[in-house]
Amino acid sequence: MKKILFQLDTDPIPNTFDTVVAYDGGAAHVSCRGNIKPSTVGTMVDGAVFTRPPKHKKNTALFITGSNMGEGEAVLASIRNHFFGDFRVSVMLDSNGSNSTAAAAVAYIGQHMKMAGKRAVVLAGTGPVGQRAAVMLAQEGADVVLTSRRVDRAATACEAMRRRFGVDLRPAAAGEPESMREALRGVNILLATGAAGVQLLPEDMWKDLPDLEILIDANATPPLGIQGIDLMDRATPKHRKLCYGAIGFGGFKLEVHRACIAKLFESNDQVLDAPEIYALAKAMMAAR
Questions:
Q1: Given this structure, which CATH class describes domain 4-97+252-286?
Q2: Distance CA 207, CA 197 (A)
Q3: Is the Cβ–Cβ distance between 262 and 25 less than 8 Å?
Q4: Tell me, what's the pLDDT at 276?
Q5: Best label site of 31, 69, 99, 249, fewest CB within 10 Å?
Q6: What pLDDT is attached to residue 196?
C-alpha cells in the first residue's frame, strides 16, 4: 500500500522545499494543499482516517507546513481534536522548518557540551526557530535568555513558550549596543535566529567574550546574523570559540527532516512537534 503524505500548508501556495523533502523522506505520493485553516482542515482529516483499515492507517500521514508557526499550531490542535480512538494518522508540525532547524542546531551544541547550567542567549529569538531552540535549550537545563529589540516582545514569546511547553525563559532587550552587551554577559552558548539579511552582532562584540564557547548563526542570507561567521562553518574555531554557519549545520537539519517524514509511516499514532523532533535529532547525532 502506498505511503501517502498530505502536505497541509497554511500559506496560499505550498512550499516546494517541504514537498521535495517529503519525497526524499520516503513518501510515495505527496498531496499538497494550500491555505489550510483550523476551521476547514476537518474534512481532510476525515478523509485520511476513514479510508484505510487499521493495519494500513500508518501508510497515511499529515505534514503541517507554512510560514506562520502560530497558524500551524492552530491547525495541529484542530487535527488532533478530530482524532478519536484508533481513527487517527500520524502528523508532523514543522512550520517554516522551525522545529527541525532548531533541533539540528541544539543537537550540535549537545555534541560539544552538557548544556545543564550553561547560560544560553538566543538573539532575535521571537521567531519560530528562536522560540523552539530556546525551549530545547531550557529542557536540557540551560539558563536561557531570549532577546528582541523590545523587551515586551521577548517577554510575550517567553510566556507563550511557558504555556506551550512548561519552560521558563528570561526575556531581554538587545536592540542597542549597551543592552546587547548586558544580554551577553556571562554567555556560554550563543544562537542567532534573526530575519534573513540582518546583522545582529558585530564580531568585535563577541570575539573577546571570556565565557563564550559556541556560536551558531541560522541566517543564510548575507549579511549574516553574526559577523565573522561563515555560512560553511562547522565547529570552526575562531577566537577560541566553536562556530557554526547555516549551511554548516543545515545538512543535518535536512537529515532530521527526512527522518521525521520516514518516522511518520512507522505507526498511525505519532505527533511530531518540537520535543519529538528534537529527541530524534539527539538520537541521530549520538549515532554518528
A1: alpha beta
A2: 21
A3: yes
A4: 97
A5: 31
A6: 87
Where along the chain do its domains lie? 4-97+252-286, 100-249
> What pLDDT shows up at residue 195?
87
φ, ψ of residue 236 to 5 degrees: the values are: -80, 125
Point out the residues of the chain with pLDDT beneath 70: none
Place of cell 509511516: 265
Cα dihedral across residues 257, 280, 250, 190: positive or negative: positive
The span from the CA of 281 to the CA of 285, in Å, is 6
Same fold, 4-97+252-286 and 100-249: yes
Q: What is the pLDDT of residue 197?
A: 87
Q: Is the pTM of this model over 0.90?
A: yes
Distance, in Å, from the CA atom of 147 to the CA atom of 150, rounded to the nearest integer, reads 8
Cell numbers of 2, please? 502506498
On whether the CB atoms of residues 129 and 121 are closer than 8 A, the answer is: no
The torsion region of residue 287 among left (phi > 0), alpha (psi -120 to 50) and beta comes to alpha
CATH architecture of 100-249: 3-Layer(aba) Sandwich (3.40)
Alpha carbons 104 and 273: distance in angstroms, whole number: 14
Closest CA to 125 of 91, 167, 63, 64: 167
Euclidean distance between CA atoms 158 and 26, whole angstroms: 36
